Structures are given as C-alpha cells and as structure tokens.
Request: fold
Amino acid sequence: MGLTKFSFLSPSDKRPWGLGWRSSNWLICLVVAVGVGTDLAIYTLIVPIVPFRLMQLGYTDVSSITGWLLFAYSIGLVLSTPPIAYLGERYSNRRDPLLLALIFLAASLLLFMFSPNLAGMIIARIGQGIAGTAIWIGGMALICDSVSEEEVGKYLGIVMSAFSVGPLIGPPISGALYRAAAHSSASNAWHYPFVFALCLVAVDLIGRLILIEKHIARKWNSDVVGGKAHAGPALAKDAAQLQEHEHEHILNPHGLKVLLSLLRSPVAWVCAGITAAYGIIIASQDTALTLRLNALYGYSALQVGLVYIAPVVASVFMSPIAGWLTDRIGAKWIASILLTGAVPFAILLRIRTSAAVFIVFFALLGTFLAGSLAPVMAELARMTRGLPGVGYAHSYSFFNISYAAASCVGPIIGGQIYDHVSNGWLVLCILWGALILVCVPPSLALMEDKTGLSSWFARRIGVRRSGQDLEEVNPVEQKEVDGDRTDAV
Reply:
C-alpha cells in the first residue's frame, strides 16, 4: 500500500456531519494556529522549571545543561526538516501526518517528564523538535492547500500571530503550576506543567480530528472552494480530476530537482534571510535582554517577563493586518516597509532612557519584525506555485531550517557579545539594525508587487535613460549635420 493511498483516519463513503464548517477556511486556520502555538509553548515550557529538576537529579552547571536541552530541540528541527518535507509531498493528505506528529509529541513529553537522567531528556527534546517540524511544515502547507491565492496572506498572518503568543504562555504557566504544586508539597510537582502541555496537545488533536481537508470534502460537495493539489496548480473541475492530478504530482517529486529549484530561487533565499535575521535577533535578545533590564532598572525575572508581553500583544494584531495587506498590494511593499520601520527602534534600544520609553521601543521593534513574517510566508506560497514539481512542504522547509539554525546561533551570539565585547549592548543593537537593513534591498528587488508601482518606476527610469541617451547623441549628430551642410555649400 503506497504512501499516497494510506490513511488510518480516512472518511467513509457516508457524508460526514458538519461538512461545511469542518472544511471551512476559518476552522483550518484556527487548527493550524493552535498547533503552532502549542508547539512553541511546549518549546519554552521547560525554561523556568528544568533547572530545579536537574538539581533534583544531582546535576551541576545547570544553566549550561539547560542551554543544551534548548539546543537539542533545534537539532531535531534541522535534521528532520528535509525528510519530512520530502515525505510531505509524497502523501495524499495533510491531516494524518499532523495527527501522527501530535502523537509523537505527546510521547516525547511523557519521556521528558519521566526521564531519570539527562540522556533521556535530550532524546525527548530531539523528538519534540521532530514533531515540531511536522506540525510547522504540514500546517503551513495545509493552509496553502485550502485557501485561495487571493487570501493566503490573510490566513498565514493569523497563524503567525500564534507564533508570537506560543512562547509567551509557556514559561509563566509552567512556572506557576510548578510553584503551586511545590507549595502544596506535591511529590510530583515536576509533572504538573507537562500535564498542562499534554492538555494542549489533546485540544490540538481534537481539532485535527474534526477538520476535513478541502479535497476530501469535495467528494460530497462539489461547491467546496479550495483544496488544491500540493504544488498549487489550477483547481481541478471535479474530485476525480483533482485526485488524478494529485496522484501524478505527488508520485514524481524528484528530490534532487526540487532541491535545485529551491536553491536557484532568489525569492527562497530572500525569505530565508529575513527568517534567519528574525530568529537571530529574537534568540539573542533572550540571552541579553534580561541582563540589560536588570542592569539599567533593576528588573526581576518577573518584571522582565512582563516586558515581553508588550511586543506580543501588538504583533497579534500586526501579523493579520500585514497578511491582509500582502494579499492586496504584494509582499514587496509590506515586507520592506515593516523591515525599514524596525531598523530605528533596534538602534534606539541603545539609548539610556526611562523604562517606559525602553519598553515602547522594544515593543515597536518586535511588532515590526513579527509583522514582516506574514509577507514572507505568503511569498513562499506564491513562489511555490511558480516552481514545477515543488510543493508547499518543500518551500516551508526553507523557513523551518532558517529559523532553526538562527535559534541555534542566536543565543550564542547574544551571550558572547554582551559578556565579552566592550559596549556589548551597543554592538548588539547595531547588529540587529544591520541584519534588518540588509534584508530590505532584496525584498524590494525580488518580492511580488501587486500595485504596479515597480513597473511604473521601471518605465519612468527607462524613459529618463532614453532621454539622456538622446541628449548625449544629439550634439554629435548636430555636428555631422553641420559638416554635411558645409560640404554642400
């Protein structure tokens, strides 16, 4: 039985209940957003509690070991991305792999929760990274499969809001649960945060079970809009045509050709660069910002955590707006404007000012940066539709690897510069501004423009150049004409 035919939860021939709303764009978007938020919440869940567990197990140098556990997750992401992207485009649906990923994530959480040593914890974190890869790539591809090209930016922008919310809810909730259990003298206080994480996975799992993909829904309702084959070609006229096209496309994804197509795409590299810049900045802030706020204002860990809320709240609104605008005027202008707007606030963080002003600068920097990811995701979808044989899972693997690699090196960059370079905070601010600024020109040059302004500017420049050429030629031509007249006389 081939990969393209297997489905352990395939619907029967009987029309499912609630077919309309179960295959709606909004439910699909909500389920994917919950999955992204759950994955990132679980990623950050261990931050406030794992040091206590390591000390209980008799380990020293707890800070370093915690860093390695975070690093193990990123390793799982990087190593699993190529095979999961490849398999994602050989499979006839998105839901079943996502269900398997959630089951694998739950198993990894249980292993981490009951592990009696560091080796088991590292294996569990690598497993969480692998599950996170499937959730990310499969979820983004599911959105692109399901919604129209004209709305993909809006829905991806909504999903990217969860990208900001997830890391915010993990640490405070896990810390609060652990503290409450410890105060009540519970012998298994370490388990409480993981029970919460497993509840999140259960909610996500229920959502995936309820969801019906568009190409499956069309078997009972031919009026269903969406449900494209994975590479995004024109929509088939009926279910039989769609399934035949999917089968032909999925069975021939030629891994090397796909890789070469992506590597040759300038747009893929622009999107990867913006993603990497975002990841490095966010990850390096995690290691340096706490120390900076403590040095300037004497902030405690709780107060630093509250500072992080400001950009998250703003980005929850910015990402959907940026995605909606991308659908209307193209990724070029939205990405470029947001990136350009972030540069001054990265530099302004260097200024010694009041805590309120610092928080405003920090919030605006995070808001502009988070908003810039929505056009990136939409541009990856547009790029995929123009590359034969390349599927959405392939393209979003670029995003995944870029962010994972950045999250590996970002904390090292931030910690080393802040601790070992003179005026380390100033250097970091300049580095953040430079990373953002260098992304602007390629965004302007290569991303999609739906307004026609780029063509208008190109025509104006062309006309101006033509006029300059004529002006340069005319004096010579005039001399030749004058010479001819003299000879005639």
